[in-house]
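Usage example:
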Amino acid sequence: MKRTIVLMVISVLLLLGVSVCSAGATPTKGSKGGAPLNDPSLTPAVVAELDRLTEEKEAALGIGAGGVSAMALNKYGLQTRPATNYRQETGYWCGPASARQSLSFHKTSSRSTVALPSQATLANRIGTTPSGSLTTAIANTMNSYRGTFGSNFNYIASNLVGTDNPYEHFVNRIGFQLRSITTNPTIPITLMQTSRIPRYWGHVSRHYMSISGINDNVSPMVMRSVDPNSNIAYYGIYWDAVGATNVNGLFRACLQADLDGTNMAMAW
Amino acid sequence: MVAASLALGVLLSGCGSSSGTLARTTELDGDSLVSVEMIELPFAVCNQPQLVGTDIYATIAPGEDDGMSLVRYDTRTKAVETIVKVPEPSMIGYFVANERWLVYSVGFELFAQSLETGERQVACDNHDLYGPTLNGDLLAWTDLTPERTHEMVIRDLAKRETTVVAPLAMGNLYNNFSTWDGDRLVWTDIVNDVGRYRTFDVATKELQEFDLSGIEYRYPGYVQADGDRFYSINFNDVAEWDWATQRVGYLSRSQGRFVPIVPEGFIANSIRATDGIVAIVDLNQRMTIRSTSEPEGQTREYQPVEGRIDALQVSSDGTLIAWRDSLDPKGRCTLFLIRAR
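Running the assembly step on the lines above writes:
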């Protein structure tokens, strides 16, 4: 959609005789980004299968049409799970670093003595390039560690756009995974447009982080971000406001990242 | 080049502090305080817009495969010119501008492009850096050294010289965003568990510190300066930073105390101070403006724009820019140019 808008703008400019300069070489040093906009692996058949798996998982948890509502007060209370914060080792390894953070929970809960894979190993398995990571590949890589760090988790790559209520799906997917009675817990990994997170103070980037806590005992509802950002201004563990469609916070940041391209919003 | 070469006079001022008592918030006569001009840009989402003369510069949200662009929008002709384009997945992380320079970051590089000549220089190469801010030819930012420590640096873009102003004791978290108050650079730090406001006067090379010991919300961040007052969002926990546990207020330098300007429990998503006003966007994205010359204890506020405000910026001429992106991908973002009277 945005591509169409940009093309329209450029077309109008060309019609008006306004110069559009490509403005010199693109810098090549440093990071390119945490996540590309689009996931080329998403054929219609793959999307349909992921939608089916998402609905199946949500139905099992009672999320979605006829299911629970995030609007209910104190539905989750304060829930946290231990996930170790790892700083990403390159500017574009937020995906592998987030995967390692989430795996640290499964290692702890499974009492596995196997060492956590390095970020480099995870980057290799995910197929991370200087363009970043794909959410589908993160979910698949997480699942490849079933049997190593426990056997009771199953990550699904899912979108928010296209659901009947993106906010409800975002909160409930995370809330259910973190709640102690959940039988197949995960530490969701979310793709964010960071300019929508207040503490980023307008900084623009596409970035993965793990979510290891939720607290709806307080208003506004907050979630605990385990942020692997290589920029240590942002690296750390934070309780961030969830926000809403028109209110800045984690949900709006994830929804914006989802709106911007086909790379999926979350592995949960 | 480094701090040692500067004649630094350090003044440590241990300020007393108070939680202050808030009067009931009342409506301020906004018409006498600010003027508001509305502009729509032909993009649904924009980032970090800056007003330079009659032009708006902004980075626009990425489109599929089209990358991200820094554009100039002429408010008179409504023409749009693309100044810089970076292919997907690179993004323009930070952007600031004034009448002389466009400064933007891509990855770990920080570029400064002269508006006069179009010449571009690499202001910072392959560093972690945070929150660049401009004042004439002077560009300041927080830099991460190879030794993993943080420093506040200033680069004279005309002379192409970078000078380290001071190290930061706790360079992560919310201390990485500096601001200019005239020729004085202002930032925050935490030393020995005490939050501090720090300043560097470019003319005199003098460093000053103002500490915040003895109060609950003693870790200031995102500092904004206006005259005698340093406005900030203050926090009370550095272990697990909780955005929802904070207090907005100002340090009165002359009185030597921190004065909250919002009730307990109020949560700000953004603040900016300029030319006698301070704007606060709350958790519901509602913006209010206060006068920075209000007597202590006064909490009169004014809402110059109804509805949601996504973010705030201050342009080099002092104009406050508040804007809201369109929730419709085919819509237009709306900018409100707010000028103090």
